[in-house]
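Example S7 (structure tokens).
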């Protein structure tokens, strides 16, 4: 353990402060939380979201991030992180870069695919395992909610009776703070880091050892040439998405303006005709 720690210190001494990886980029997120060597950090994140203790998340098994297709025509679902907790519950964790209008349906779709994947031939419905889905969002989804962390279950509307415990969705909006959960709020700060100065400030101020370790992992990633290439490639894809989205919006606005002008012209002609008729009378 001491030898590994010394090796890590030596590697961190080579850290180039000019290079910075944003933790909220999904590529970085998966590297920090979705690997076997970083299980302890994943446990810390889970505890902060699910309100569990370290003993509650002792047994974590990270499984394949691709859900099997039920038939040849099905869409392949590639998940950020998929794990089995204490051999009882399946948990899917997603870092969502874009906010779509159809995002709630996408969340349900991912959950349903994970839920179905727990079934085995010859096993009845009782063999289906509870599934929890956790989504970190870079944008606001619920404007009516002040808190960052919202939890959804299936309950009776008036009597508040739980229908089943197999569904649970946690939405964490990184655009907000979580004042009632300090540990989760520090993870939100971590995922919101935009430059090396903010990163060093968080590391100096936090007492959360998992957050400190996550910061070191991000720094070490910047030393790897392949990781730098993958990060640049992913950030370019994101910029291209927003560029195309903005262009499409501008084109739509211009088309709308032109259409409005044409409609206005036509209405003016019709009004002129009508006035001419009235004058002629």
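Recovered sequence:
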């Amino acid at each position: 353990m001491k030898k590994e720690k010394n090796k890590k210190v030596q590697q961190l001494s080579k850290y180039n402060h000019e290079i910075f990886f944003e933790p909220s980029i999904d590529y970085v997120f998966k590297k920090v939380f979705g690997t076997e060597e970083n299980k302890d950090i994943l446990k810390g994140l889970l505890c902060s979201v699910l309100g569990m203790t370290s003993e509650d998340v002792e047994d974590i098994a990270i499984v394949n991030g691709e859900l099997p297709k039920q038939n040849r025509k099905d869409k392949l679902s590639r998940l950020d992180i998929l794990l089995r907790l204490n051999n009882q519950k399946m948990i899917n964790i997603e870092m969502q870069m874009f906010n779509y209008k159809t995002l709630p349906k996408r969340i349900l779709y991912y959950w349903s695919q994970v839920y179905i994947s727990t079934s085995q031939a010859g096993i009845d419905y009782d063999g289906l395992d509870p599934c929890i889905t956790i989504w970190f969002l870079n944008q606001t989804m619920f404007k009516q909610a002040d808190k960052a962390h919202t939890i959804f279950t299936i309950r009776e509307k008036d009597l508040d009776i739980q229908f089943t415990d197999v569904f649970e969705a946690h939405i964490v909006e990184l655009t907000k703070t979580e004042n009632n959960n300090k540990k989760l709020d520090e993870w939100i700060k971590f995922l919101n880091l935009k430059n090396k100065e903010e990163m060093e400030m968080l590391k100096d101020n936090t007492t959360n050892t998992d957050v400190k370790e996550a910061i070191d992992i991000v720094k070490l990633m910047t030393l790897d040439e392949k990781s730098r290439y993958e990060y640049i490639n992913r950030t370019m894809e994101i910029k291209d998405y927003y560029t195309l989205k903005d262009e499409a919006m501008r084109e739509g606005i211009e088309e709308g303006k032109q259409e409005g002008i044409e409609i206005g012209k036509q209405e003016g002609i019709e009004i002129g005709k009508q006035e001419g008729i009235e004058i002629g009378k």
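Notes on this example. The first helix runs from residue 2 to 12.
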